[in-house]
Amino acid sequence: METRVIKLDRKNIKKEDFIEAGEILRAGGLVAFPTETVYGLGGDGLNPDASKKIYAAKGRPSDNPLIIHIADKEDIMKLAVDIPDLAWKLADRFWPGPMTMILKKGPAVPKETTGGLDTVAIRLPSDEIARTLIRESQVFIAAPSANSSGRPSPTKAEHVIEDLSGKIDMIIDGGSCDIGLESSIIDLSGDKPLILRPGFITREDFEAVAEGVEYDRAVIAKTPEKNVVAKAPGMKYRHYAPKGTITIVEGDTDKVIEKINAEVALNESRGIRTAVICSDENKSRYKCKNVYDLGSRKHELDITSSLFDVLRQLDSDDIGVIFAESFDELRLSQAIMNRLRKAAGYNTVRV
Ligand code: TXA
Ligand code: MG
Question: 143 CA to middle of ligand 1, Å?
Fold first, then answer.
């Protein structure tokens, strides 16, 4: 299949630009598009065949449910039932934006889209291209991240092209994603609100609106605990990991740098292509041929928006051994460290 790539300027969006994408979606085809978090691989969420195509294009296990993207808050009533008051409060506060809510599934949503679950994930993105696409196509767009299963989520159209070109109908290139990490997921289908995936909207943000918000234990664990299975099916799968091995080094900054420099020297002396992932603040202190600077700790969005790109670069640069600083003290530390720990297979040393 030939994949058409069209480039759009977020600041100058015209409805006509979405005519063809809308036709594709209504006919059950697939269109990748940017959101403020990561690129999504969109298909008609109410069409079981479109959902099946999404799983096939990504190589994704079919028990891993999709998020349905809407453009108007009220549309949750068309997709979910038994909607608690808290859902409306959270929608008023955080939508449009990087929050996904899990609610009890309504009859319109096919099980193919929810991976067989009785609940449905819904998000109203803030990205203008994403929202215009949903509105103009008049489709509730099921969209997982537009990567092949297991790879880092795409934050640029080039990443989508790399993974899915030839497998989907169209890619809308809207440039880089602002946040670069997937949405925060909050489950409202149980007794108390539970964060299933940490993201730009933090527990503290949720607590300002809702009482008793907790994290699903599995997603903030520093090491996987026995018998604790993540509640979001997708969180149990291997994800983000580059081909090389990553070790996260935690502790006092001076000691971290000393330890990483020693490990780099050892690995480089053995002829292994070695890299460091760090922040701007410490960049110049590393003695390593391949230093990947995520940005300043003072600009957390620089860090979040560059992480997945760097994880992909490690592969294209054929790096075998990687050492990463920890980002434990940031507002977005849960979101960042959740991805980094998974990429590292929970391989951490403390100095
Ligand atoms: O930011 C995002 O959320 C991006 C953009 C495209 O919106 N989408 C995204 O989708 O990250 P995906 O499919 O890569 O991740 C969705 C996660 C998976 O871990 C999945 O298991 C979980 O949400 N999920 C979806 N429906 C669920 C449900 N009904 N119950 C529990 N977890 C669910
Ligand atoms: Mg994903």
Answer: 8
